[in-house]
Amino acid sequence: ITVVLVCFVAFLVSLAVVAKFSVHGRRNIPPGPPGWPVLGNLPSLTKDIHLQLTKWRYQYGDVFRVRFGLQDAVIVNGSEAIKEALVQKAKHFSNRPDYYLVRCVNMHFGAVFCPYGDRWRALRRFTVSTLRFFGMGTTILEEKIQEECRHFCSTLRLLVGQPVDLKNRLETSVSNIIVSMAVGKRFEYGDPKFGRLQLLAERINVTFYRSYIVNCFPVLRFFPGFRKMYNELMDRTAELYSYIREYIGQHGNTAPDDIRDFIDAFNKTKRDNPGFLPDMTLTYLIADLFSAGTETSCLTLCWGFLYLTAYPDVQNKVQAELDRVVGRDRPPAFSDRINLPYTEATIMEIQRIATIIPLLPHRTSDDTTLLGYDIPAGTNVFVNLWDLHMDPSRWPDPHRFDPARFLGENGRLLTHDAFMPFSTGYRRCWGEQMGKMELFLFLTNTLQQFTLKLPEGTEPDFHGISTAFIYPRPFSLIVTKR
């Protein structure tokens, strides 16, 4: 009887959701694949969601509709539709999905899932201005990144000739850049507390992704299996927030004029403007900075090193360009970019072919249209960045790693309207300049000093592990001095 009742209620809710798309005569809804009662298209979206959505694009067009359980969502593909949504109609498409799990762990108080509006604008102004204060886009930040590059390369010298997994070492180096700005502390390699923070951030991403169905059916959190994942998410986020609050507590309520980190900057802003964001915001902002600021650059570099070992001719060309322009007597500087077009094209090709964040979650704030289709307010919208970067009509033979895609006949860099590694519009990555600097300096410093190879008899595996990010499967490299 209970099962029948649940299905009946779900059926009524389904009717309400469908009606939402047709009220006030708004009948021009996007097409989409047929789904199951109650479950919608979830049975087809259990693994590598971005790949299935990309297949449907060729069947239903650049804008189509799917159902995650009882929730309708619109999938946006292709540069024309993406730019219409995120640039031309940014004020309508810049909200974030109101996920049940996000509310459970208060992620909506942070930067990533903050609803579009006055609080988001205040948070963005504070974050961007503080990043700039600490040197984003300047030589001040560059020196911090160079310091971590030196530490990273020093560890590689100790591992020459033996198989090594670079991911953990990269995580520590990249994390230290944003963590030093966030809490005013640098961690050493092997620090157990820092290792725990990194592990928590990664497991939270994985658990949130695997628990996605609970967003569609919150009642599932009471059922075995789902309850375990739900409790793990609650416990891991609580532990991560506890660590962050510990660092915030060490600062007390001080607001020195000599700002050392984000905590000082937040306290000073609160002192000067008591009506500023609530105190709890700082905890969730630092959590977002730590997770997003680490995973994006670290995973891109990991994918990059994997592709460079699989395509040694590309690695050799980058090294030859570095030798010609920079030499071996000084480390590469960010100002060298303009004279290293092949190296820069290689980084762009890594970002394209890896696309570590395949789907960008958005939500409409108002009734609007997209490519002529009616999209009601409150509709979850997913921008398929994976499809954009792997579209064979824009990128011939898209699975081939080829930096020459970004070079003109004269060898200069080309711009490409189907290349958006940092997204676009109002929700464009706030730390884009820092990310570009990290990718360039870590890759060039590494290849200036070392050559990377796969262990004998090893084949590269380019099929990643899908979560909110796409992780490369664990792999080892052989590092040799040049």
From TrEMBL:
InterPro entries, from UniProt? Cyt_P450 (IPR001128), Cyt_P450_E_grp-I (IPR002401), Cyt_P450_sf (IPR036396), Cytochrome_P450_fam2 (IPR050182)
Binding residue positions for heme: 429
Q: Which residues form the signal peptide?
A: 1-19
The name this protein goes by in its record: Uncharacterized protein
Q: Does the keyword Cytoplasm apply?
A: no
Q: Any idea which UniProt keywords this protein has?
A: Heme, Iron, Metal-binding, Signal
Organism equals Branchiostoma floridae
State the similarity comment. Answer: Belongs to the cytochrome P450 family.
Determine if Signal is one of this entry's keywords: yes
The Swiss-Prot or TrEMBL record lists the needed cofactor(s) as:
heme
Quote the Gene3D superfamilies the UniProt record gives. Answer: Cytochrome P450
